[in-house]
Specification:
With about 160 residues, this protein is mostly beta strands. The protein has one domain: Beta Complex (Metal Binding Protein, Guanine Nucleotide Exchange Factor, Chain A), CATH 2.170.150.40. The chain is about 0% helix and about 40% strand. The mean pLDDT is about 95.
Length: about 160
């Protein structure tokens, strides 16, 4: 797997589309938990939606941690029903740290069974060489990188934009 990723272009979250779109990610995606590399992928997708930082979806074959089904489901008007997972690495379990869509809508069929991770429940997430910050709020799972401009929703007062 190549260690070189193309640079991230400057993007404004307000210019992302509604309805959202899904696109392949040219950058390498890595996720660490308990000092362990649990995701290493050059085959990820991202979903772009107005006022949201991108949410990254990883093919299950590029995930090397124990996935434990977690309680609860959620519904996205665009993608459908999501199910959640606890992530276990060594003696550490991160609760409801990932989710996937088993039967996404036709538009999002390429992310079927792909896993998305909450950045604030991981030790470190990277898009290319850029470290990720978590989207504010306790529901959204977007990844904020330094190339993003604009105001993403999630902070108090922005949830219902």
């Amino acid at each position: 797997m190549s260690n070189v990723s193309p640079p991230l272009p400057v993007e404004n979250v307000q210019s992302y589309p509604r309805p959202p779109l899904v696109e392949a990610v040219p950058q390498r995606i890595r996720v660490f938990l308990a000092d362990t590399l649990i995701v290493d992928s050059t085959r990820a997708y991202r979903v772009l939606e107005t006022h949201h930082p991108p949410t990254y979806y990883i093919p299950p074959d590029d995930v090397t941690c124990e996935l434990l089904p977690a309680s609860g489901r959620s519904f996205c008007e665009w993608k459908g029903f999501a199910r959640y997972f606890d992530i276990r690495v060594a003696d550490l379990t991160s609760k409801r740290a990932a989710w996937c869509y088993d039967e996404p809508s036709h538009t999002f069929s390429v992310i079927r069974h792909h896993l998305a991770f909450y950045a604030d429940k991981m030790d470190r997430c990277l898009v290319g060489e850029m470290t990720v910050d978590a989207q504010a709020g306790n529901f959204y799972g977007g990844w904020i990188t330094a190339n993003l401009k604009g105001m993403p929703k999630g902070a108090p007062g922005t949830e219902h934009w």
